[in-house]
Structure formats: structure tokens, C-alpha cells
Amino acid sequence: MAKQPMLKFTKISRGMPEKRDASVRNKDFDEIYAGYADAKAEEQASRCSQCGVPYCQSHCPLHNNIPDWLRLTATGRLKEAYEIAQSTNTFPEICGRICPQDRLCEGNCVIEQSGHGTVTIGSVEKYITDTAWAQGWVTPAAPAVERRESVGIIGAGPGGLAAADMLRRAGVQVTVYDRYDRGGGLLTYGIPGFKLEKDVVMRRVKQLEDGGARFVFNCNIGETLSFEDIRDQHDAVIIATGVYKSRDLHGPGAGASGIVKAIDYLTASNRASNFGDTVPEFESGELNAAGKKVVVIGGGDTAMDCVRTAIRQGATSVKCLYRRDRANMPGSQRETQNAEEEGVVFEWLTAPKGFRGDTVEAVIVEKMRLGLPDATGRQSPEVIEGSDYEEPADLVIKALGFEPEDLPGLWGAPELEVTRWGTIKAEFTSGRTTLPGVYAVGDIVRGASLVVWAIRDGRDCAEHVLQDFDRLAAIAAE
User: Fold this and answer.
1) What digits encode the pLDDT tens for the residues 430-471?
2) Please, what's the b/e burial string for 359-390 (b: 16 or more CB within 10 A of its CB; e: otherwise)?
């Protein structure tokens, strides 16, 4: 009888890839986790219980066939494992690095519930696809037949790129328009290199270019090119802009110099640290934490990116203010632990009341307590009267989340319907908007969300665009 390759969670403990020491990694922007060696990846994959109802798969937005590629990895069949992984996920090596697995697949692993420690799904996923790239198994789109239909995609972030990949593989002519000078969107300029090294993103953009997708960079719709021009040039348009409008702070002194937006800060850092670009605001110190006392306001993943970036830039101190406690923060607990290891101090149950100095010198902080649940079920923070204190700061970074820009106004397209939150009104799954031939995917529909959801939306939308093209062709042929 063949030796059982799986169900080894009772004998083998959970083992993450080696993590670089915090005192070393907090000085550079390299990824903090090493990759698995072949034997270690097989060992960790073999811990999967192959359960009859895989909650890991059902709690993955892409419904990846996780048990299947874990079994194939455990038995050394890596090429087949990659083929299954990429069949449902356009960018598995990116999701393996940045998905909050502790809240999704790994957080719902059956053996975790039994006390054995979750399977390291994200790390194995990263290993599979990194191996695929190294072995040359990842290839550009090579459609059997080129179609005449053309699609314009506005936004080169994960949703737009996922849709572009699916459409090119079907032979559709694709042009991607983006405001930045490189593809990737927030994958490139929003997420720091210590979580996602930029060559990982750039090789995907190149793969799309090699597969026939055309990119138009430095293109601001409404300025460089009108929305109507893009509609006229293509048979369909997919809006995948993401949400870039930062939520603002209020209170006395909120307009002081030295209080900056997280997106501006992270973009400057990624340009300077990962691409070697000359960034005047970084060189001047405006968007550089070196030698400064830094306070970051917010508790999401963007706030974690900011505090960990500030440490690497050489800040003298980095503190994070969040109005709820640790258990109620929206960011990844894994990222919070990494930040603490690297020297970040978290001030839970605190919020800014105001700021001192024309150029910020201190944050006036008020302490909070958790009261009754709000409409979402989370306990609402309440101010503790008389608890104010000052937190010295030379640089304050606002990481309060993002909202949609006014696309109908910016693009001169009042007929493009939006919801009361400013997101584009689009059909669930298909992405169809109220305008004929115009679709929308990702955060511009959902609001600020996860990269994996944008990938799911892009793939789903591409499938429906193809269905609509086939339907129109059938009607024309009658």
C-alpha cells in the first residue's frame, strides 16, 4: 500500500518560512520572509487534512482549489499544482504574499479549529508560483484566434490587470490606460517592497505586454484623454480605477505643515526606495521620515504599511494611534506583530483631537473607551473626558482609509451613475454599469477592499464581457 502523503498535521507542526531578524529587516525594503525549500514546502503541504468541506476554499474570494494544489505539492507534482493554482487566480504569487490569510483561507482551516495550527496556505501558494516562474512555466497569453473586439481598461491595478489577462487569453484586443508611469496601481506604489517586491509586479506587467496587451501610461482620463474618446475607440470599457481619495482629519491645526496623506507618503517611498526615482518631496524631507518623530493615525493595513516604512526610513520613533483596541482593529494581526517586532509602538484606544504648531509639533490625543455596538456590531469608541495629552510629532501620516473620486465630474460623464457612497453603480458579478458597453470592477464598485477581491471582480467581468460579445455577434449574424 502506498504511503499516505497527507494528514500529517498530527505529527508535523506548523512551520512558516524563516523570517529575517527584526533588527536586520527594519533597515531595508526587502521581503521579510524567505521562500520554502522544496522539502519544507512538501512537508507543510502534507499537513492538509483533505477535509470533505474545505472551508479554506469557500472563504477564499477566488475559491481557489487549495486542497488540490496542496496535495500535488506534497507529492512533488509542482507543475500540476501551479496549473491548478493559476486556473482560478491570475496572480497567485502576489496573493501568497499580501493576502490576509489569517482572516481568509488560513483563518478557516479545519485543523486550526482542532488546535493543530493552520496549514501555511499562503506561503505554499507563493512557493508554487515562484517555482513556476523559475522553471519557465509562466507564459504570456497566446490565443488560438485573435478576435476583432477591442476593450479599453481604465486602471492598471489588480482588477484591471486580471481582466486584461483573461481577455487577451481569449484573443480580445486590450488597451490599459493608467494615470501612473508604471503598471500595477497600488501593488506598485501603495504596498511597500518588504511585503511585495516590485520585480514581482513588473514581471506580470511585462507578461501582459508580451501577450499583446497595450499600455498607455501617464494618462489622466478627463485631461490627457476624455472618457468619450475611450468609449469611441473600444467596443467595451472596463473602469478599474480603484479609490484614491483619502479620508481627512478634522480638529484644530489639521491643516498644519507636516501632516500628510498615506498614499502620498507610500508612493514617494516606493518610487525612491524601490525604483530609484528622484522624488522632490522625498528629497526635501516632506515625505521622508528620516530623523523624525512619526505618528500614524489609523488601524488598517495602510497604517501598518506606513509605520513599517517609517521605521525603515530611520525615524527616531514611530507611534500608531488607533481609536479601538487591538482585538477590534481592521488590519492584519500578523502585520501588527511584525510592526511591533520592528520597533513600532501602538497606542490603543486613542484618537487625535487636534494638532499643535504651524508646522506640526505635537498631536493632541484623547483617550477612548469602547461603548455600545454600532450598526456593524462593533463597539463604538467613546471619549474619556479630561484624558487629553500631547504626543510629540514631526511628521503625522493620515491612514484613515480611501473614498472614491468623483468620476462623473472629473470625466465629464454625468450619465455614469454612482451610489450614495460615490462608488460606481454596477451589477453584481458582471460589472455592467448603467451605460451600454461600460463595466466597472474592484474598489471603485466595492469601496476600499482587498486585492484578492479586485482580482475576482476583474476575472468575473472579463467572462461576462466575452459573453456579451458573443451574444451581440449572434444577434448580428441572424
Assistant:
1) 999 999 999 999 999 999 999 999 999 999 999 999 999 999
2) ebbbbbbbbbebeeeeeeeeeebeeeeeeeee
The predicted-structure confidence for 89-117, as pLDDT tens digits, reads as follows 999 999 999 999 988 999 999 998 778 89
Domains of the chain, first to last: 8-135 (1.10.1060.10), 150-243+404-477 (3.50.50.60), 254-402 (3.50.50.60)
What are 2-18's pLDDT values in tens digits?
Answer: 456 777 777 888 898 99
What is the pTM assigned to this prediction?
0.94
Strand partners, 174: 151
Evaluate whether 305 touches 274 at the Cβ level (below 8 Å): no
CA pair distance 281, 177, nearest whole angstrom: 26
Do 166 and 463 contact (CB within 8 A), yes or no?
A: yes
The C-alpha cell that represents 14 in the structure block:
506548523
Task: Write out the DSSP string of 25-80.
Answer: HTTS-S-SBPPPPHHHHHHHHTT----SS-HHHHTSTT---HHHHHHHHHTT-HHH
Scored b (16 or more CB within 10 A) or e, 4-27 reads ebbebbeeeebeebeeeebeebbe
The helix (H) or strand (E) run that includes residue 175 is strand 173-177
Residue 431 backbone dihedrals phi, psi, to 5 degrees: 80, 5
Name residues whose C-beta falls within 8 Å of residue 465's C-beta, 6 or more positions apart in sequence.
Answer: 151, 163, 167, 172, 236, 238, 439
Where in 96-166 does DSSP place strands (E)? Answer: 150-154
Angle ∠(146,150,154) on CA atoms, nearest 5: 130
* Closest C-alpha to 29, from 195, 246, 193, 231: 193
Which parts of 75-109 fold into alpha helices (H)? 78-88, 92-98
Contact 150/175 with Cβ under 8 angstroms?
yes
Residue 14 three-state SS: coil
The DSSP code for 326 is G
Q: How many CA atoms lie within 13 A of 109 on its CB side?
A: 26
- Enumerate helices (H) and strands (E) in the chain, giving the number of each: 19, 16
